[in-house]
Design goal:
about 250 residues; alpha/beta; 2 domains; three-stranded mixed beta sheet
């Protein structure tokens, strides 16, 4: 698997014009903390993670409560935040509600599953490393969203969907045909960047119709330094991607 470290991304992302300014996006950690503090007094710090084994852990550093929570807790409503506060205080009342919340969001526990079920770690590329590097280069605040290798229906053999963003689940899925030696890293990075923009923009209504590619989206999409290069590569190698995707599908279902 390629080691997509920060030094690698500096070489990969700098050969073109950088964005004039980082893409504005709300800081989900700060928003979450403001909501949680309505239920839990005292100083609190939080780190969100994609760990598959421990959903909630805490420790004290002086008067500061230090939390480590799975990313699923970004979706917690006020009732769940209140139950979490009770749990951290040692009260039993919130335990059952927290268990139900975690169980109902178990589809977001992605790391550590077999790759076919939605892992971020491929044979060549680690998608979370790509997401985190893009956050450093392009986004004013980190875009916290799971990015996994997914399964895609074959559909017509004249096109291939290289990535998708599930608005309901808030999960990015990348086509496993990209996890191959002949695919340049800048192509995979560009697909992940495009889907991260979907997470930032969400769904919009334009003239009463659903729009997921408003003009502002397209402007920011083209800020990726290898946008044209990546698009050209995909057009020139479409048949090869289609054939490799078909071969992978046959292996998985044989």
């Amino acid at each position: 698997m390629d080691q997509l470290r920060f030094s690698f991304f500096r070489r990969l992302l700098q050969p073109g014009p950088r964005p004039a300014a980082p893409i504005p996006s709300p800081d989900p950690r700060q928003e979450w903390l403001e909501r949680f503090r309505r239920h839990h007094g005292g100083p609190v710090e939080v780190v969100f993670h994609d760990n598959a084994s421990t959903m909630v852990s805490s420790r004290r550093r002086g008067k500061v409560l230090c939390l480590r929570l799975h990313n699923m807790f970004f979706q917690a409503d006020e009732t769940v935040l209140s139950a979490l506060s009770d749990f951290l205080r040692g009260a039993r009342g919130g335990n059952q509600l927290l268990d139900l919340f975690i169980e109902s969001h178990r589809h977001l526990i992605l790391i550590g599953r077999p790759r076919s079920c939605g892992s971020s770690v491929g044979r060549r590329f680690d998608l979370l490393q790509i997401r985190d590097a893009l956050n450093r280069f392009y986004f004013a605040n980190p875009v916290i969203v799971p990015v996994v290798w997914g399964r895609f229906r074959l559909g017509r053999r004249r096109s291939i969907r290289l990535g998708s963003y599930a608005f309901g689940e808030q999960v990015i899925r990348i086509h496993p045909a990209l996890d191959q030696d002949f695919v340049p890293a800048y192509v995979v990075v560009g697909v992940v960047y495009h889907e991260m923009l979907h997470h930032v923009f969400g769904e919009q209504k334009v003239g009463g119709r659903r729009s997921i590619h408003p003009p502002e989206f397209n402007i920011l999409d083209e800020r990726y330094v290898h946008f044209a290069r990546s698009s050209d590569w995909v057009r020139q190698n479409l048949r090869r991607l289609l054939n490799s995707g078909k071969a992978r599908h046959q292996r998985e279902h044989s």
